[in-house]
Design a protein that fits this description.
Blueprint: H1 2-20, H2 24-29, H3 31-49, H4 52-61, H5 69-75, H6 87-98, H7 102-105, E1 106-109, E2 115-116, E3 120-127, H8 129-135, E4 139-145, H9 149-168, H10 171-174, H11 179-193, H12 196-209, E5 216-217, E6 230-234, E7 239-240, H13 244-249, H14 254-272, E8 274-276, E9 284-288, E10 297-301, E11 307-309, H15 312-326, H16 330-339, H17 349-363, H18 368-371, H19 376-391, H20 399-418, H21 424-440, H22 443-477, H23 485-519, H24 524-531, H25 533-544
Parallel strand pairs: 5-10
Antiparallel strand pairs: 1-3, 2-3, 3-4, 4-6, 7-9, 8-11, 9-10
């Protein structure tokens, strides 16, 4: 809370107070440095506090939709690695959760964890002989929550929710970001992560989706040795997916692995609608088959704590977005963004529609070769105007959409490591076509969507007379406003000039009044002459930093 208060006070001073005195340009010049410094301080704070704060930093590092790149870059290196819990506390936690002594539950339990994170840690173990014979599984991995982590998470979430409520009262922030909603998204994910039964259920659902896929494998859940704070899974450790040397030594083609990984990922996204949202190289193995042949191998996923779901509304929104982009329909693209929940209610959709329409009208359908023939000055001018419009819009990606972007980004990195010439868009093309064709075809979903569109059109038509009447009334009153980014910039420059002129008059007035009073022997005269330095500073500095 002290950290948050310090950052808020600093932002209030530089972003609100100084611009009122015409020093907005001066404050803006140091903004990047201040943001980076604040992000570095939070990085150190999170590493020191541990608990949920490391997860919060990792969560914020992915929020390019609401945070500037200067902050997310500083937080990207925040690793979920902390000192492991003492063995006696881990053993007590396992025995308490399973209701039996450790030497009864397992034939062997490795004292050194293979991984230690802020919320829990993992140990290798062997099942007791009877259970191993019954399940046909001997080697397992036991994940154990840190003792007392629930209380730490509760305190951390309370602090984060308090900060979110404070930010929601700051107009500058509230107009661009729904801070409480961000906190609740993070809280939902975090509370699921400290209940291993959720992860177990996700793992089994994921396995069921790919039960008929010979290329996919997931670890079995050992329910007899699992509970809310302890999760036991089959040990499926194999070749790390980006270990190209080991893949080739096993006779496996890395290019084929890249293609299969892309296929199973897009099958998760477009077909199953339930996907692994943390597919970094440490969570994916390539397991050679018994025959050792070049085509006898499987892709094995682990760690199902972070999963995403393509809901029917998200699927419909993506379909509408793709169709609008292909059809170069600016208003349709904006409506699809609203349907996806990307734009906040305060967004000026009219301005965005005009920008999108202008984009499609000028550059729609052009290939790369054609774009290279366009005058670079025209491209630069258009990009500047378009970015000005987009930058002023309040948008915030829903968690499911953010996880989808994260998944595709990680997939791109892994496939590029396996095959530098791999084109991820060639892999997604058939699945995207399937998504679009599903929307164009009939079926129950298509009928439902058609009905929803009909209701939407009817609602729009019903509101149209009232909106026309309101528009006419505004025009009669002289309240009709047209906003253009270039005009806004000129108005801001004019406001700064008027502010400097006012400060100049104030400087002269204070100086003259002080001189008169001082000549009369009044000590107030010296005070007024010193005070005249403030508006003078505004005039001088404001003219140098427009």
């Amino acid at each position: 809370m002290r950290f948050a208060t310090r950052v808020l006070v600093q932002a209030w001073w530089f972003e609100l107070v100084l611009p009122r005195f015409g020093l907005g340009g001066f404050a803006a010049r140091g903004r990047i440095r201040r943001l980076q410094k604040a992000a570095r301080r939070f990085h150190r704070l999170a590493a020191d506090l541990g608990g949920l704060m490391i997860k919060a930093g990792q969560f914020l590092s992915s929020r390019l939709d609401v945070l500037p790149r200067e902050i997310t870059q500083e937080l990207e290196g925040l690793q979920d690695e902390v000192a492991p819990e003492p063995l006696d506390r881990v053993v007590a936690q396992v025995e308490r959760e399973l209701g039996m002594p450790l030497d009864v539950a397992f034939a062997a339990f490795d004292e050194t964890p293979i991984a230690a994170a802020s919320l829990g840690q993992a140990h290798r173990a062997r099942l007791s002989p009877g259970l191993a014979a019954e399940l046909g599984i001997d080697q397992v991995v036991v994940k154990v929550l840190r003792p007392g982590i629930e209380e730490i998470v509760e305190v951390d979430l309370t602090a984060l929710r308090r900060v979110g409520r404070i930010l929601s009262r700051v107009k500058l922030v509230a107009n661009r970001t729904d801070a409480p909603a961000l906190v609740e998204e993070f809280a939902t994910t975090s509370l699921e992560e400290i209940d291993y039964l959720n992860e177990a259920a996700y793992a089994e659902r994921f396995a069921a989706d790919f039960a008929d896929d010979a290329r996919m494998r997931t670890p079995a859940i050992i329910w007899e040795r699992s509970a809310r704070r302890t999760l036991t899974l089959q040990d499926v450790t194999a070749i790390k997916i980006t270990d190209i040397a080991s893949l080739r030594a096993a006779g496996i083609d890395p290019d084929a692995v890249a293609a299969e990984l892309a296929r199973v990922t897009f099958q998760q996204l477009f077909i199953a609608g339930f996907f692994h949202a943390d597919p970094h190289p440490g969570n994916i193995f390539v397991t050679p088959g018994a025959s050792g042949g070049p085509d006898d191998w499987t892709i094995t996923y682990i760690d199902f704590g972070m999963m995403g779901e393509i809901t029917p509304s998200l699927r419909a929104g993506l379909r509408s977005f793709i169709l609008a982009a292909v059809g170069r329909d600016g208003p349709g693209l904006v409506q699809a963004m609203q349907r996806l929940g990307v734009l906040l209610p305060t967004a000026d959709i009219d301005e965005l529609e005009r920008a999108m329409s202008a984009l499609f009208d000028r550059f729609g359908g052009m290939g790369v070769a054609e774009l290279t023939q366009v005058d670079p000055r025209e491209l630069e001018q258009f990009a500047r105007r378009f970015s000005e419009t987009v930058r002023t819009l309040p948008f915030q990606l829903p968690e499911s959409f953010l996880l989808l972007i994260r998944t595709v980004s990680l997939l791109s990195g892994v496939t590029s490591a396996l095959n530098q010439d791999f084109n991820i868009w060639d892999a997604v093309d058939p699945f995207a076509k399937t998504l679009v064709e599903a929307g164009r075809s009939g079926g129950v979903d298509g009928i439902i969507e058609l009905g929803q569109q009909a209701v939407g059109y009817a609602s729009t038509l019903a509101r149209l007379p009232r909106r026309i009447d309101q528009l006419a009334a505004k025009a009669e009153r002289g309240d009709l406003a047209v906003r253009v980014p270039e005009t806004d910039r000129r108005m801001r420059a004019l406001e700064r000039s008027v502010g400097r002129a006012t400060s100049g008059l104030l400087f002269i007035g204070l100086l003259v009044a002080g001189a008169i009073l001082r000549s009369a022997g009044d000590p107030l005269g010296l005070v007024l002459m010193v005070a005249a330095a403030v508006p003078l500073l505004h005039v001088v500095v404001g003219s140098r930093f427009p």
